[in-house]
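Entry for magnesium ion complex. Fields follow.
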Amino acid sequence: MEELVGGREGVIYKRGDIVVRPLNAWSSTVHLLLNHYHAQGLTECPTCLGVEGDTELLSYVKGDAYNYPLTGAIASETALITAAKLLRKLHDASTSFLSKHHTDSLTWMLPARQPQEVICHGDYSPYNVALNGKTVVGVFDFDTAHPAPRVWDIAYAVYCWAPFKTDKIDALGTLIEQSERAKQFCDAYGATKQDRTVLVDTMVARLTTLVRFMHDEANAGNAQFKANIEDGHHLSYLADIDYLKRNQETITARLLA
Ligand SMILES: Nc1ncnc2c1ncn2[C@@H]1O[C@H](COP(=O)(O)OP(=O)(O)O)[C@@H](O)[C@H]1O
Ligand SMILES: [Mg+2]
């Protein structure tokens, strides 16, 4: 088996055309969602091929995978725009999932938020999509999927793709360039004026919720989150929250221009 990189180390493998990943309490919900997307003709995500012991078997999504720092094809305008369009497609295809299923009776990794407009991917970042050249053609890693407003997912995606990150490895461009990329993402998604008005506040709320979740999981004994906190991962999110708050006016002005 070949280990796949770009996510957690030592737990995601490829066996032929099958991806083998750890099974979680929420995996059956994710499988239902993935199969729903395919039934809707959205084939850019994996399908569930089955469960084997404590692992899930997913179809392999073809394409090139990337990670931070964003260089080459993943840093292109085409990647940014096609990523936003695919997120829109995912959201639109999820509304029929919400009408078909009583989401409160399903298990999710992250709590549902009101109003439940769409199923958010929850981690729609450059390291969870597949590219053909500069075009985003696939998306994976749906563990963090959960029902929530569209803008909740747009906010986290824009944060990751602009990116409004202050860490040296993750950063790209100036504040003006980041704000322009944020606007391009919103334009390609078809974000409303209201979405853009609340986007910075929603990014801050999303990151605050993420840091709280990391602490809660670590305190509950989750080894992965304990290690993340020990390595100071939460500190970069806190620095990014500060960066977003300091530059809220500039970013919002560009988003609404
Ligand atoms: N279904 C898939 N098709 C193609 N590549 C995948 C698939 N699932 C995972 N990968 C690859 O494996 C890497 C790690 O998997 P991922 O599901 O993102 O793990 P993690 O939850 O640890 O982030 C991804 O960045 C991607 O390169
Ligand atoms: Mg991942």
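NOTE: The CA atoms of residues 11 and 156 lie 25 Å apart.
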